[in-house]
Design brief:
Distance between the termini: 71 Å
Strand content: 15-25%
CATH superfamily of the largest domain: 4-hydroxy-3-methylbut-2-enyl diphosphate reductase, catalytic domain
Keywords: 4Fe-4S, Iron, Iron-sulfur, Metal-binding, Oxidoreductase
Number of helices: 17
Enzyme class: oxidoreductase
GO molecular function: 4 iron, 4 sulfur cluster binding; 4-hydroxy-3-methylbut-2-enyl diphosphate reductase activity; metal ion binding
Pfam families: LYTB (PF02401)
Largest sheet: 5 strands, parallel
Structural class: alpha/beta
Family: Belongs to the IspH family.
Number of strands: 22
CATH architecture of the largest domain: 3-Layer(aba) Sandwich
Shape: globular
Helix content: 40-55%
Strand order of the largest sheet: 4-12-11-7-8
Bound molecules: iron/sulfur cluster
CATH topology of the largest domain: Cobalt-precorrin-4 Transmethylase, domain 1
Length: about 450
């Protein structure tokens, strides 16, 4: 399918928000519409309903193209492996791992969480992106978004001259600069259906680094659509991964936390003020969403980086609401749940739980969480010690720790604040972990800052 060079793409999840909330359901339409918005006009491509193929079928068609790459490039693998090792590896973190996750240096005792840092999906994504740049020398390489939420990795891609597709706000992006013969990388959290369609229409090589766990969620929402279910997605509607996931849905509602899930569960059981409900969820629902009909049959999915205990609790809540509404026998026709919680997310959350539980025994002064400020999985790691009342900080890089004994960190409310850091210079005991998109080197650099700070302000504590 070819389009006539539209330059600006409106991401479906965001464009299907408030202004369309009361429009007739798009499923009742006899035509299939893919809408690509330019800043001045909308280009609509229509197919008769008899030829209508599902979004999943179309996605699979795009992926079968000879210019769509998902397996990387063996010719450049050895050199990419070397450069990744040089950029990300940390002798200090290796030392921590080999000494039962605890070391003492410069009067600072460090306890490392048992699971932390780069997950398989992120390492794979970086390797594929770096391989793409080396495999296509001389070609212009673009990326549709940050590869992962980590400043060092994205800086490295800038240094490699990878062009980041311009964001225009409200979910729109400018693909003008993508020319024939260019290479376009899709990031670890995937690209929306509309973006994949647009790229398929251009004569470009696409390197897909989407994590297979994210694709698993897409397959789950596809199952929902085939069964006529509305996908209840535990995720943030504006997060890139959820934007991509919702783009593969016909009917969905995103709930970011338990409070919003309770609102949905309550509507399932008791109904309510439809207008108020839609106003609250105006940016988080599919086009033409009618809660009176669309919440009769639901399936659960999630953004892979959400807090897994909350996803489980939301699943139980939905199940209970459906049983209350339809009775235990009929409930199975109205609710489906597939486990889409990523192992890596779960393991890192379990490991910081363990640190929190042993906090008194270990005598932790605080817990340091290292990872990009935009990284959802890192932000959720911070919530665990915060909820337990443990002093804890989320920093995105080592220079958040100042030589004047201050720390600049992101709170769970998303504010960036600076405050006095080490309170007792005689003895410092800390726990540390890092998000799934954080290289070990970032942990090493952050700990090195603390060692320097302690040495400069408090001697060696001996
Ligand atoms: S956290 Fe999970 S879903 Fe996200 S990139 Fe890593 S393995 Fe994939």
């Amino acid at each position: 399918m070819k389009f006539s060079a539209p330059s600006v793409l409106a991401v479906a999840a965001l464009s299907s928000s408030s202004s369309h909330a009361f429009a007739p359901s798009h499923r009742s339409s006899s035509t299939k519409s893919i809408i690509l918005m330019s800043s001045t006009e909308a280009v609509t491509t229509e197919e008769p309903s008899s030829k209508k193929t599902t979004k999943k079928e179309k996605r699979l068609q795009y992926m079968k193209s000879p210019s769509f790459y998902r397996q990387g490039f063996k010719d450049v693998r050895p050199s990419v492996e070397k450069s990744m090792e040089a950029q990300f590896k940390s002798p200090l973190v290796d030392e921590l791992k080999s000494s039962n996750f605890v070391i003492e240096k410069e009067g600072v005792t460090v306890h490392l969480a048992k699971d932390f840092g780069f997950c398989w999906g992120v390492e794979r994504s970086i390797a594929l992106a770096y391989e793409a740049v080396e495999h296509f020398p001389g070609k212009t390489v673009h990326i549709t978004n940050e590869l992962i939420h980590n400043p060092e990795v994205n800086d490295r891609l800038h240094e490699m001259n990878v062009q980041f597709i311009e964001k225009l706000g409200e979910g729109k992006k400018n693909f003008d600069k993508v020319g024939e013969g260019d290479v376009v990388i899709l990031p670890a959290f995937g690209a929306s259906f509309e973006e994949m369609s647009l790229l398929n229409s251009k004569n470009v090589d696409v390197v897909d680094t989407t994590c297979p766990w994210v694709s698993k969620v897409w397959n789950t929402v596809d199952n929902h659509q085939r069964k006529g279910l509305t996908s209840v997605i535990h995720g943030k509607y504006g997060h890139e991964e959820t934007v991509a996931t919702t783009s593969f849905c016909e009917d969905y509602i995103c709930v970011k936390d338990m409070k919003e899930a309770e609102m949905v569960a309550d509507y399932i059981v008791n109904g309510g003020d439809k207008e108020a409900f839609l106003k609250y969820f105006e940016k988080a629902v599919s086009k033409g969403f009618d809660p009176d009909t669309k919440l009769q049959k639901v399936g659960l999915a999630n953004q892979t980086t959400m807090y897994k205990k909350e996803t489980r609790a939301i699943g139980q809540l939905m199940q209970k609401a459906i049983i209350k509404k339809f009775g235990p026998v009929k409930a199975q026709e109205h609710y489906y749940e597939f486990d889409t919680i990523c192992d890596a997310t779960q393991e890192r959350q379990d490991a910081i739980h363990e640190l929190v539980e042993k906090s008194d025994e270990l005598g932790l002064d605080f817990i340091l969480v290292v990872g990009g400020w935009d990284s959802s999985n890192t932000a959720h790691l911070l919530e665990i010690p915060q909820k337990a009342g443990i002093r804890s900080f989320h920093i995105n890089k080592a220079d958040c720790i100042g030589a004047d004994n201050t720390i600049t960190h992101r709170t769970i409310k998303g504010e960036i604040v600076t405050e006095k850091f080490l309170e007792n210079m005689d003895k410092v005991v800390l726990g540390v972990t890092s998000g799934a998109s954080t290289p070990d080197k970032a942990v090493q650099d952050s700990l090195s800052q603390i060692f320097l700070l302690k040495a400069a302000h408090g001697g060696k504590g001996e």
